[in-house]
Write a structure and sequence with these properties.
6-stranded mixed beta sheet; 6-stranded parallel beta sheet; alpha/beta; Rossmann fold; about 300 residues; 12 strands
């Protein structure tokens, strides 16, 4: 089999792509030959042109990792019906295209439960980068989880405009800290060091995303909302080898599969909080709880935050 995996961005940049690299490595360790190709995060037309060029060189299966792969795959799948495509964390499906994804909203919901259970000031923060549909759903689920655990909990949410700008992330967290926030859900990627600096300076605690940040910094990270999208790469390749991919459909993994979706917690987290997380997880598995997909409330711009300090 000729298998190619496309990652968007730059090597070594961000936890989302770190998950993707881990998924590629897992597939290789399972005995699959996988070609890894990096594509710069340029415009959709440029990404599509790159993918079409890759298709001309031949492949049996092409996996595009992340929603930036939706448009390129939609363009390429029609032109190359003999090639199979899978978009991880995307939405495009077709006769020769499928989606594999993890429920980031469920992980974010549990992050909200964790934040509400562990806050000391009653002030919670959410920091996102760019307002994509996925980012908005993650924000809504986080707020929902916090408010279901502790109704009336204070919440400040902001999108700083970039997932990779550490200075913007630091400034926004500083403004939040000065208004009483003590737990921040950092739903950004390359800009995470800015949140870490703010946590160290203003004694905040952070909840990370994608990978288990508590392993390296258990006193800085209260927890991590793990939605292991990289694992989908290895699973999709395994399914393809067995002829089990459902083309024209989406395959999703949630809290019923904790290897894919869960919240990792720091050793500092209390037993009562762990029990609450387990109860909410089981409620989602049973279908009794569905994280909200919409947020209705105030949103804070950095300029407005600074002007009110």
């Amino acid at each position: 089999m000729r298998i190619k995996v496309l990652l968007f961005g730059s090597p070594g940049h961000g936890s989302f792509n770190s998950c993707g690299l881990a998924g590629v490595e897992a597939a290789r360790q399972a005995g699959q030959q996988v070609d890894l190709i990096w594509i710069e995060s340029a415009g959709p037309a440029i990404r599509a042109a790159r993918l079409i060029d890759i298709c001309h060189r031949g492949a049996d299966l092409i996996i595009a990792y992340g929603s930036p792969g939706d448009y390129p795959v939609a363009m390429a799948a029609m032109r190359f019906p003999h090639i199979h495509f899978i978009v991880v964390q995307g939405s495009y499906v077709g006769e020769n295209a499928a989606v594999y994804s993890v429920r980031e909203d469920q992980a974010a919901f549990l992050a909200g439960v964790l934040a509400a259970a562990e806050t000391r000031t009653g002030g919670l923060g959410h920091l996102g980068g760019v307002k994509t549909d996925a980012a908005l759903r993650v924000r809504a689920a986080y707020v929902d989880g916090a408010h279901r655990q502790s109704p009336g909990m204070g919440m400040m949410t902001s999108f700083c405009g970039s997932i990779d700008d550490a200075e913007l992330a630091f400034d926004t967290c500083e403004a939040m800290a000065r208004r009483g926030v003590d737990v921040v859900f950092g739903a950004i990627d390359g800009g995470r060091p800015g949140i870490e600096r703010a946590c160290q300076k203003f004694r905040l605690r952070q909840i990370g995303t994608h990978i288990d940040w508590t392993e390296a910094e258990p006193h800085l990270y209260l927890g991590s909302a793990i939605a292991d999208s990289g694992r989908c790469i290895a699973t999709a390749i395994k399914d393809y080898a067995k002829g089990n991919v459902r083309f024209g459909a989406s395959t999703s993994f949630g809290v019923e599969s904790p290897d894919y979706v869960r919240v990792a917690v720091s050793p500092t987290v209390g037993q009562a909080t762990k029990l609450a997380l387990d109860e909410w997880s089981q409620a989602m598995v049973r279908g009794e709880v569905t994280p909200s997909a919409e947020y209705v409330g105030r949103e804070f711009e950095l300029s407005g935050l600074l002007s009110r300090l």
